[in-house]
């Protein structure tokens, strides 16, 4: 039996949204003349049209129709520090005064690299990129060059950037690596692929918690099993922690006690500026050493002073190890409160720490396929309800905590969730 809201209920909610946001609609119509669909970043679009924001401060966003929202999306985990954090703003202002692009090595890059090596235990050396996508591409190149093998094992529902996306049907946007797809939380599927392709697999690429795939946690023993299998079959283990590195002081690899060979990073670690990082074992990273290595890695803005300065300020002064523990404890408490409110609905939040995702089912979720797509209207209704309550999130159900959020904002989210249950709990229909 599948539960969903009466279609008229969602239709009425969307009609209210359209009436409340005429300026966003007009802005998208204007933008569509010069950009396909008015869009240059696919994840931001949703029907009937997305909101257009005009400003942000702390944990709040203003849109072009004059509404103010509590930001519970936090730039898909990148805006850990909120909007215009004074420490980050000061660091950026100081960096800009000394020249944006110096055409050379600068004093900041080694400082940020040192902080990264000190914070993430598996990283002996690191290299900067402009995005998490680039970092993952660099990791796969490094693994293939190091092992002399060509194939990669990844996981259905995983997301490692716009050109390494494995949710849904195959896409022409993906880089044409030789990929073998396993199922998340299923060690047997991984071992079967390794046995079927002996000596072919350069690496196992995995998120220690699926991010865009629905904030699905790795079960006990799964990552440890991947570590053992990779060593047994001569493949490298790569943790994509672009999203999850914020979930513990040293990332989930520290919290879970599993050490990968390589680790990719991004999002908040540039202080809100574009960034990505690849780090890991010294012998693997040595391939990029221009004095002796065989791999060339270009990128005009890899060491740009804005990202370096903002990243240093954030790690040294704001997101300390103690602050990471505090924020993620708040997230765990909040997720428990939300699930308690939703206890009598076919809905639940999964995730850990400061990142969580809503699923339209109360059944256990071990992999993305366990989240029923035929109930997305229930999740849509929750999204539009939160907007009416002044709370901004992702339509797919993603909620993310940022540092400026106070207990007041967290309480407002719980209250809005309770009002959703009170308002719509009686209009669900079985089909």
Which helices and strands appear, and what pairs or packs with what?
Blueprint: E1 3-5, H1 7-20, H2 22-31, E2 53-57, E3 60-63, E4 68-71, H3 86-97, H4 107-119, E5 125-129, H5 132-147, E6 151-155, E7 178-182, H6 187-196, E8 201-206, E9 209-210, E10 216-217, H7 222-232, E11 236-240, H8 251-256, E12 262-266, E13 276-280, H9 282-285, H10 305-318, H11 321-341, E14 348-352, E15 355-359, H12 376-388, E16 391-392, E17 398-400, H13 407-424, E18 428-430
Parallel strand pairs: 4-16, 6-7, 6-8, 8-11, 11-12
Antiparallel strand pairs: 1-18, 2-3, 3-4, 5-13, 9-10, 12-13, 14-15, 15-17
Overall structural class, as computed from helix and strand content, comes to alpha/beta
**What's the total number of strands?**
18
Q: For the CA atoms, what is the radius of gyration?
A: 22 Å
Q: Please give the CATH architecture of the largest domain.
A: 3-Layer(aba) Sandwich
Can you tell me the overall shape? globular
Largest sheet: 7 strands, mixed
Instruction: State the helix count.
Output: 13
Q: Spans with pLDDT under 50 lasting ≥5 residues?
A: none
Mean model confidence by pLDDT? 96
CATH class of the largest domain: Alpha Beta
DSSP strand (E) fraction?
15-25%
Output the CATH topology of the largest domain: Aspartate Aminotransferase, domain 2
The CATH homologous superfamily of the largest domain corresponds to Type I PLP-dependent aspartate aminotransferase-like (Major domain)
Q: Approximately how much helix is present in the residues?
A: 25-40%
Alpha carbon gap, first and last residue: 6 Å
How many independent structural domains? 2
Q: List the strand order in the largest sheet.
A: 5-13-12-11-8-6-7
């Amino acid at each position: 039996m599948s539960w969903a809201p009466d279609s008229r209920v969602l239709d009425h909610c969307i009609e209210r949204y359209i009436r409340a946001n005429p300026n966003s609609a007009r802005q998208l119509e204007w933008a569509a003349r010069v950009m396909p669909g008015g869009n240059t970043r696919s994840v931001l679009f949703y029907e009937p049209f997305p909101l257009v924001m005009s400003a942000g401060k702390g944990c709040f966003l203003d849109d072009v129709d004059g509404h103010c929202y509590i930001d519970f999306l936090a730039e898909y985990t990148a805006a850990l520090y909120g909007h215009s954090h004074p420490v980050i703003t000061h660091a950026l202002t100081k960096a800009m005064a000394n020249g944006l692009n110096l055409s050379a090595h600068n004093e900041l890059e080694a400082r940020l690299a040192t902080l990264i090596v000190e914070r993430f235990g598996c990283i002996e050396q690191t290299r900067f990129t402009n995005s998490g996508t680039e970092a993952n591409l660099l990791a796969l190149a490094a693994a293939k060059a190091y092992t002399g093998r060509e194939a990669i094992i990844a996981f259905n529902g995983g997301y490692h950037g716009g050109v390494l996306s494995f949710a849904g049907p195959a896409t022409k946007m993906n880089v044409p690596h030789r990929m073998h797809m396993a199922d998340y939380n299923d060690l047997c599927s991984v071992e079967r692929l390794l046995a079927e392709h002996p000596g072919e697999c350069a690496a196992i690429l995995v998120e220690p918690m699926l991010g865009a795939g629905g904030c699905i946690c790795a079960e006990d023993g799964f990552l440890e099993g991947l570590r053992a299998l990779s060593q047994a079959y001569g493949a490298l283990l790569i943790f994509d922690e672009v999203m999850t590195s914020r979930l513990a002081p040293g990332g989930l690899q520290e919290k879970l006690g599993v050490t990968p060979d390589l680790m990719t990073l991004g999002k908040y670690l540039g202080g809100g500026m574009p960034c990505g990082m690849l780090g890991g074992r010294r012998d693997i990273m040595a391939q990029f050493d221009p004095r002796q290595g065989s791999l060339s890695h270009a990128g005009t803005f890899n060491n740009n002073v804005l990202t370096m300065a903002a990243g240093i300020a954030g790690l040294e002064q704001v997101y300390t190890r103690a602050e990471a523990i505090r924020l993620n404890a708040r997230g765990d408490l909040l997720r428990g409160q939300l699930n308690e409110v939703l206890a009598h609905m076919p809905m639940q939040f999964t995730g850990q720490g400061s990142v969580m995702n809503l699923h339209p089912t109360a059944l256990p979720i071990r992999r993305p396929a366990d989240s029923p797509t035929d109930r997305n209207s229930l999740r849509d209704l929750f999204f539009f309800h939160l907007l009416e309550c002044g709370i901004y999130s992702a339509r797919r159900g993603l909620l993310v905590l940022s540092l400026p959020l106070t207990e007041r904002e967290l309480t407002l989210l719980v209250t809005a969730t309770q009002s959703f249950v009170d308002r719509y709990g009686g209009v669900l229909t079985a089909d």
